[in-house]
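tool_call: predict_structure(chain=1)
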Amino acid sequence: MWKCPKCGTPIEPSFDVCWACGTSAEGVEDPNFVTADEAEPIYEPRSEAAKADLAVEAELPEPPAEVVECYRAASTAEAKFLIDRLAEQGIPAMIQGAKAGGLGYLVPSLSPRIMVRAHDLFPARHLIEDYERRRQLRQSTDD
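tool_result:
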């Protein structure tokens, strides 16, 4: 340790000048010295490795979206049909419980469920309600 001859601050031996006032151990003051608190930020260009790390971070996927039930179809075929209609409108969807086969009519909890992202639920329900109206209209005209 050495002591600054100007301000008396104890300085680590690895420093050439006083960190508080910029004076050397020999008592020579640096007229351009600025404390770290007063200095402007130093711009250091990023290394190629740092740029690559930033690029990798930018490519990370978003967290998974919340998926909610939109509709319980009577059959797997109906569920697949509705998923195709949703996809045509830009609404991704998936089927859960499609292995129940034809038991959907007997046990509603085994019916294939159409799942959509939570933020797509309203437009998806609107499309499915339109489908249900048309289906009921067809059934009433067939009877």
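agent: Residues 100-106 have pLDDT under 50 and may be disordered. Proceeding to next step.
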